[in-house]
Amino acid sequence: MSAITRDEVAHLARLSRLALSEDELDHYATQLDDIIGAVARVSEVATDDIPPSSHALPLTNVYRPDEVRPSLTPQEALAAAPAVEDDRFRVPRILGEEA
User: Fold this and answer.
1) Which of 17, 23, 27, 53 has a Cα-to-Cα distance from 65 of 20 to 30 A?
2) Is 36 in contact with 4 (CB distance < 8 Å)?
3) Could you tell me if residue 24 is inside a domain?
4) Total domain count for the chain?
5) Gene3D superfamilies per the record (predicted)?
6) What is the CATH number of the domain that holds 27?
7) CA triplet 94, 88, 65: central angle to 5 degrees?
8) Does a structural domain hold residue 23?
9) pTM of this prediction?
């Protein structure tokens, strides 16, 4: 028995505002039915003795530690800017909001 019908796919397509052909409805109904079946099989796996995890292998942080390093001063950073205002880069307004 199918978990999802062609009519349900058509309904989902209408809700998503997708124009699907008759062949696409049949094709997606079959694919979605296969996907739902695969999810159902995964749900049947006995996991009572398996602790929850976010990854199959233990991971360690591979990032370097944060260190203070010399960097540009605000004046050096702004020196090549095409426009500066109040010690900041001046860029065109894009949202139209009042300042």
Assistant:
1) 53
2) yes
3) yes
4) 1
5) Glu-tRNAGln amidotransferase C subunit, N-terminal domain
6) 1.10.20
7) 105
8) yes
9) 0.45
Taking 80 as the threshold, does the pLDDT of residue 98 lie above it?
A: no
Position 36 in a domain:
yes
DSSP 3-state of 84: strand
Sequence letter at residue 69: R
Say if residues 79 and 73 touch (Cβ distance below 8 Å).
Answer: no
- Residue range 68-96: mean pLDDT, rounded: 90
Is residue 79 domain-resident? no
Cβ neighbours for 29, distance < 8 A, ≥ 6 positions apart: 2, 4, 5, 6, 8, 9
Q: Which domain holds residue 14?
A: 6-43
Say what angle helices 22-43 and 6-15 make with each other, to 10 degrees.
100
